[in-house]
Amino acid sequence: DQQVKQNSPSLSVQEGRISILNCDYTNSMFDYFLWYKKYPAEGPTFLISISSIKDKNEDGRFTVFLNKSAKHLSLHIVPSQPGDSAVYFCAATADYNQGGKLIFGQGTELSVKP
Amino acid sequence: NAGVTQTPKFRILKIGQSMTLQCAQDMNHNYMYWYRQDPGMGLKLIYYSVGAGITDKGEVPNGYNVSRSTTEDFPLRLELAAPSQTSVYFCASRQVNSPLHFGNGTRLTVT
Prior knowledge:
The complex is a heterodimer.
Chain A: E1 4-5, E2 10-14, E3 19-25, E4 32-38, E5 45-51, E6 56-59, E7 62-67, E8 72-77, E9 86-93, E10 103-104, E11 108-113
Parallel strand pairs in A: 2-11
Antiparallel strand pairs in A: 1-3, 3-8, 4-5, 4-9, 6-7, 7-8, 9-10, 9-11
Chain B: E1 4-7, E2 10-13, E3 19-25, E4 31-38, E5 42-51, E6 54-57, E7 64-66, E8 76-78, E9 87-94, E10 101-102, E11 106-110
């Protein structure tokens, strides 16, 4: 029972272009969503988040979009840089402010080619 | 400020052996979590804790135990190691309204 799904295991993008990573969820109780980035041999690091009361959150080159009716969120990276090459995980939770557990997707490996 | 520290970094166990994966954080975070990462499977929650003395099961708790006697430490215990427990284990912590901070992981092989 995969409550958070990232259906694309990998994505390859040219430097300077847009990267779009997608994530779907099934639990309608989820009210907070996060994206994490992971380099090999390191722990994941927080990238950007969005509350269910919003449909967009932007931080520099990174923008997360949330479509609650479709239970879908996406991460846009513009422009993509070679240093963005990593595995990206989306995560969701139903009670973030009470220490609620984060459920992660399978991850998408992004490769940005020079 | 070291953040989240996990030890050991690597370990090889024989089937049936036991071991404890250590996790410590120095950020005074109330919430702590253990995840395992298997190839293509993402991060699966094993156990979590919302404060000292309080623990709860996550998605894949079978074969593991935890304790939380202090705010800083959240050890994960494997009693009878099995090949299915070969994985990379990540400990994480956070405070209210803040994102998870992860350690760098423990790579465990059970043969």
